[in-house]
From TrEMBL:
<dbReference type="Pfam" id="PF13385">
    <property type="entry name" value="Laminin_G_3"/>
</dbReference>
<keyword id="KW-0430">Lectin</keyword>
<dbReference type="GO" id="GO:0030246">
    <property type="term" value="F:carbohydrate binding"/>
</dbReference>
<protein>
    <submittedName>
        <fullName>Concanavalin A-like lectin/glucanase domain-containing protein</fullName>
    </submittedName>
</protein>
<dbReference type="InterPro" id="IPR013320">
    <property type="entry name" value="ConA-like_dom_sf"/>
</dbReference>
Amino acid sequence: MEIYVNGELVGYTNAKDIIFNEFPLKIGHSGSYAEFQGQLSAKVCLMFSDYLEIFSEPTYFPTNKKTTQHNELPSVTNELSVTFQLNLEKHDSNWITIFLKGENEHHACTPAFWLSPNDSKPHSYCSVKHNWIHYVSAGNNLELNKWYHIAYTLSEPQKRMEFYVNGELVGYTDVKDIVFNEFPLKIGHSDEYSDFHGQMSNFRYYNIRLSADEIFKNYILYHSNKLGLKGDF
């Protein structure tokens, strides 16, 4: 177990037989100790060995659109996954940006996820050598005011890009020579396309390719409504 302050390791201990649990995470308060008096950054991230949870609670966009720097994300070698929950408030006559890690919409966009104009059909993208983008579109158009669990996976060893909706594989394509990049990850906005209007929660960025079974279990966890999300699932 380790603790860091301002990027420096200030304490650690060896630990074994750790007991994890499914209780809520309380920030700034508990049942018996004094409450924290002061300020915490509005950007709360949970960093684990293979993923970063950039935000957990339902977050309104575009009011709280996010940008996470490359060096704040888990280090990616040749595969990654992104999972989140989404509730779309309105369609748009332009493409809607869900997330984009890259220079812009036309160069270095690994990974990226957009909704198509007018009908909000999911499209997942990545950049490859000799052909600036590779994409897959499948599944149904997203309905308004309805919560969806979305998962995007990309793997150079597997030579495959996939996306899942509500725990089910709805689109995939073979892909090779994937070009990863060191640009920031933008969530809910980009330079050219429309901002996302609605809510997202539990946005996780992984440096591994999640399996179909792991994605389904992830969906079931949130579908059980333990997070208290409002709206239809």
